[in-house]
User: Which sequence fits this backbone?
């Protein structure tokens, strides 16, 4: 790819805990990516719209409220409906181990739980982009 | 306090010790790192001596517990008289489920309730609102109307327990519901004791459950101050919170600074609304975090008390000593817990409990070991409560007041934190006060910089988090975590449909219309909200009317 990787960092749902999202956003930026942070309380529809408008390669979502099983798959579904299935989707937050297989099944490429170094997320994104 | 000549001698002796003994030792055995620092970026010296507190004046700077400037505590006998209130923040799923948990906690010796609401409730949406989907009952209990509130406190005598409610933007509505439930129990408002968080500024800064723009939000807050000073005199009308500022990544000194700056903004707003400072200030309360850096945390609590006392006395000319006392609740630091080896969190919480108690807290919530993974189970909540009870009954730290006073290091650190916080407050004043500084993104930027620095220290291994970036083990996924049944959303929606078809809708419409008119004018909104609540107007309907009149806050997005 001859342009920097473009990432939309998003906070779906009503949860206001954005320390993690912002730290990850900044780390991605420091790693040379172009980062768009949506701010709080984004509906899946808004996230998809931003991702398409910004021509994002990656959508990285964070939820700490427990609404991940509902909201993450909805974003994947909407992106697919819009034909944007070449966008890599990752998620993070307080997400119980037991929920991860279901989320992966639903199309989230990876789930990063508390304690994950930002370098792991950066490497994952670099190695798993769907666009070339 | 110290004789000048003595101090000069000590300084000389310390220099001498550093130049000879230390120089020789370090040459052979270098220290672990080139410099030692607290979370607030304060350099920590090898050793502290009387020279580090040479300007201290005991009567002026420390005085006695219960005496201005309250550095040593707000009550004359502190824990020798009565222990702090043990108050575990709890709530999930439905009012029925949460009511069971509260009764369990009271049976286990907890002395006050602390209600956690789900996000739709905190943002003023009913459970059947499209934006509530997936969030109902998740991080707290879902409350849509007085009906739910009646169930939540069923069998709990509201004249006997004190209840803290973590509710901000719609605080007036939940307080009104609480008053209405008490009425049904035959308890009059002046007998009620408890706290609403009601601190919107830190929602804009760090926690995110805002609804309305700054000005109408400040109006709602001062309406509550005024209403309660006349009708619910024992109620703490606000809990000015540093907790979430710290969780968002601030340092200890920033926690004090931004919290007190918010406090200043509320006092100014209330005075501007025509209230007398000594009428409302005695009911202001605070809420701080307790992290692992034990001595810095103790110094933080002491510095916060002293600085607030000075602000109230000098800046706001308060006359009542009660207006000058910074009373606070503490919660141990959620962000310090690790998902890895969660049992280790019990130890962290114990250290943080000590910090809060040595710092003179009035009430305490201890986090449970599994909270980096999910909401806590009953078993893990019991361990957290037992941690407080062990510190209270077995550690001995409660037997004398402010036992770390006089430590050269703790006193020096207390001074440093107070000075750093004062400097921040000066900057915020220059920016036009806390609300403006938040709208400009200044406060958020400062916090984010600290959060990022902290994360990078962990990733570089400069900061060790046991079990996370050092002393790691392979472990199986934890079992038995608490899960909220997704059916809660449907249950609440059904209850709402039922309510809307059985209540007197004409009365609801009239109450909402009256509220709307009042909101467009200048009247105190509390009586109108109470009227709407009593006829079973829902939280979403009441906040909906206010949204219509006030509009919504637009977040300043800072990266």
Assistant:
């Amino acid at each position: 790819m001859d342009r920097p990787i473009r990432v939309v960092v998003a906070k779906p749902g009503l949860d206001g805990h954005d320390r993690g999202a912002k730290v990850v956003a900044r780390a991605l930026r420091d790693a040379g990516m172009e980062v768009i942070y949506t701010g709080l309380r984004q509906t899946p529809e808004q996230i998809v719209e931003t991702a398409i408008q910004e021509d994002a390669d990656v959508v990285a979502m964070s939820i700490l409220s427990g609404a991940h099983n509902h909201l993450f798959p909805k974003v994947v579904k909407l992106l697919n409906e819009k034909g944007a299935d070449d966008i890599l989707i990752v998620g993070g937050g307080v997400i119980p181990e037991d929920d991860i297989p279901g989320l992966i099944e639903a199309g989230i490429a990876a789930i990063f739980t508390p304690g994950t170094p930002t370098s792991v997320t950066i490497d994952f994104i670099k190695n798993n982009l769907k666009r070339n | 306090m110290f004789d000048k000549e003595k101090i000069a001698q000590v300084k000389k002796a310390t220099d001498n010790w550093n130049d000879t003994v230390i120089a020789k030792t370090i040459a052979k055995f270098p220290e672990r790192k080139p410099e030692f620092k607290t979370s607030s970026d304060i350099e920590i010296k090898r050793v502290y001596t009387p020279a580090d507190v040479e300007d201290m004046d005991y009567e002026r700077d420390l005085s006695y517990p219960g005496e201005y400037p309250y550095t040593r505590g707000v009550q004359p006998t502190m824990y020798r008289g009565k222990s702090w209130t043990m108050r575990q923040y709890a709530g999930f799923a439905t009012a029925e489920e949460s009511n069971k948990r509260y009764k369990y906690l009271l049976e286990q010796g907890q002395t006050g309730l602390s209600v956690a609401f789900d996000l739709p409730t905190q943002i003023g949406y009913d459970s059947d609102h499209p934006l509530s989907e997936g969030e109902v009952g998740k991080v707290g209990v879902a409350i849509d109307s007085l009906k739910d509130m009646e169930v939540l406190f069923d069998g709990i005598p509201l004249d006997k327990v004190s209840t803290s409610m973590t509710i901000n933007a719609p605080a007036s509505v939940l307080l009104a519901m609480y008053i209405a439930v008490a009425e049904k129990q035959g308890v009059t408002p002046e007998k009620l004791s408890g706290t609403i968080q009601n601190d919107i500024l830190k929602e804009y800064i760090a926690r995110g459950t805002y609804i309305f723009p700054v000005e109408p939000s400040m109006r709602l807050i001062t309406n509550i101050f005024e209403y309660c000073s006349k009708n619910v005199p024992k109620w703490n009308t606000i809990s000015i919170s540093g907790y979430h500022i710290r969780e968002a990544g601030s340092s200890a000194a920033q926690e004090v600074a931004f919290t007190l700056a918010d406090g200043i903004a509320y006092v100014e707003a209330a005075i501007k609304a025509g209230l007398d400072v000594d009428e409302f200030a005695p009911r202001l309360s605070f809420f701080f975090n307790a992290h692992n850096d034990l001595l810095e945390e103790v110094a933080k609590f002491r510095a916060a008390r002293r600085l607030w006392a000075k602000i109230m006395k000098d800046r706001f000319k308060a006359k009542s000593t009660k207006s000058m006392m910074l009373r606070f609740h503490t919660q141990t630091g959620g962000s310090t817990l690790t998902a890895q080896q969660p049992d280790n969190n019990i130890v962290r919480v114990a250290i943080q409990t000590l910090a809060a108690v040595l710092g003179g807290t009035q009430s305490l919530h201890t986090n449970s070991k599994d909270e980096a993974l999910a909401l806590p189970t009953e078993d893990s909540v019991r361990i957290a409560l037992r941690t407080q009870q062990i510190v209270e009954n077995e550690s001995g730290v409660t037997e004398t007041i402010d036992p770390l006073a006089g430590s050269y290091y703790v006193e020096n650190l207390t001074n440093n934190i107070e000075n750093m916080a004062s400097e921040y407050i000066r900057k915020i004043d220059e920016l036009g006060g806390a609300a403006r500084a938040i709208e400009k993104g200044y406060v958020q930027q400062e916090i984010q910089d600290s959060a990022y620095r902290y994360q990078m220290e962990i990733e570089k291994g400069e900061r060790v988090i046991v079990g996370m970036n050092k002393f790691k083990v392979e472990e199986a996924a934890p079992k038995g975590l608490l899960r909220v049944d997704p059916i809660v959303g449907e249950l609440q929606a059904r209850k709402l449909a039922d309510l809307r078809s059985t209540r007197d809708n004409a009365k609801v419409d009239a109450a909402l219309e009256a509220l709307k008119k009042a909101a467009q004018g200048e009247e105190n909104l509390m009586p109108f909200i109470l009227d709407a609540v009593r006829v079973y107007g829902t939280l979403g309907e009441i906040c909906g009317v206010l949204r219509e009149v006030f509009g919504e806050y637009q977040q300043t997005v800072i990266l």
In short: The CA atoms of residues 165 and 186 of chain B lie 21 Å apart. The domain at 76-440 of chain B is CATH 3.20.20.240 (TIM Barrel). Chain B is about 50% helix and 5% strand. Strands of chain B lie at 85-86, 89-90, 113-115, 163-165, 194-196, 235-236, 238-241, 284-290, 328-332, 363-365.
